[in-house]
Amino acid sequence: MLNAQFNAVVVCDDVRKEMSGKDIIIGAYGSEIQVHALPYQMNVAFWMEMTSKRSGPCNFFFQIQPPNTDHKVEIKLVIDITNHKIPFAIFTPQIPIGIDREGSLKLYVKGTETEKYELIKTREIKYVPFQSPAALTKKTNLSSTV
Question: Per CATH, which fold does 4-140 belong to?
């Protein structure tokens, strides 16, 4: 059983740490991830706020599963939790993934190598053909008259 609760999970392009200690979430995805070509290669990162059931060093094994389920990516984060009563944030590095089709990008987590993975986040991936800004201007008829 997982010794943590994930209060928030943000799917984004990257997460960076400021000198002040604050996290910078770059390119957060809201309702879906839109890609302009298939297949598509991209980097994703995950920012997570969580609480732990215990203090001390904890292992977390994450599995990222794009719609093409045969291309799973697994990473391990080791976190030293100083006070399990206070929520804290962790984030993954950028993770390269290949996307072959539309569908769900899923993030799973487990606490030990022998546990079963638990789903903690799903984000839909949608193919949207690229349109140049000129084409969008013509389509929306943004001309003005004086």
Answer: Immunoglobulin-like (2.60.40)
The domain ranges of the chain are 4-140
Q: Structure tokens of 44?
A: 């994703």
Tokens of 47: 């920012």
Tens of each residue's pLDDT in the chain, 146 residues: 688 899 999 999 999 999 999 999 999 999 899 999 999 999 999 999 999 988 999 999 999 999 986 789 999 999 999 998 899 999 999 999 999 999 999 999 999 877 899 999 999 999 999 887 776 666 655 555 55
Give the predicted TM-score (pTM) of the model: 0.85
Question: What is the number of other CB atoms lying within 10 angstroms of the CB of residue 77?
Answer: 15
